[in-house]
Amino acid sequence: MAAQEADYKSGSLPVALYPNAMRREADGKQTFFARPIIREHLSMDDIASDMVVEGVNGGMSREQIVSTWKSINCAVLDRVANSCSVDTGLCLCSTKISGTFATDSEAFSRERHGIDMAFRTNSYVRDKLAGLNVVIRQGNSIKPQISGVRDLELGGCEKLTPGGFLEVTGSNLALFGKDEVVGLYFENEDDPSKTVVLKAEKMGMNSPSKLACVVPATLTPGSYRLKVVTQFTRSTKVQRKEPQSFTYDRTFTVTSA
Asked: pTM for the complete prediction?
């Protein structure tokens, strides 16, 4: 934790390298790809507390900052929902449509298509991040790693279809181990009590590079993140003592039928 705190204060970005199963050099040597190590997921309350501690709150309390922030978010979302693009100072927000259309005159279907918000960073953000010092913390890790998620019902990866078929690709994904926490988690972002966990026996495919399953029909409407927890060690005979987890950085939407 001390090293991570020092990274935060110095503006360093801790990064983990993972073996790339899809690409190798011309001479056959293994290549690796990098992902930032997410220390923790923060809310607006956390950021507001930071502003108060740093004295950049302009005399506003944490509660006032959060209230103002929520009001701004509502105003931005209202504009975006009415087909505007909004530059927040950090990113350009607009709407995007997911799913495919069979013809150039097919109507929009809420069963086959989805609407979400798209974000594109501006030059201020890109310049700020370009100055970060990248620190390799883990190297060739055998932790689980999700690189892609595909809802076969919708043919995309922004929405989940309860009762539909889901493919999760990556590395070291196999749900293996006797610890009761091992499983594929559909984590509800707003209400943790609505999180659903699928165990290894529910997987149609349970390999290091791919998990395939039926999306739980019990998922309620809302926003979800996928998390893999496993004791896999690249051996079917030896399990890791402590379960390892990986939470995918995309958010998925479940809508009512």
From this structure: 0.56
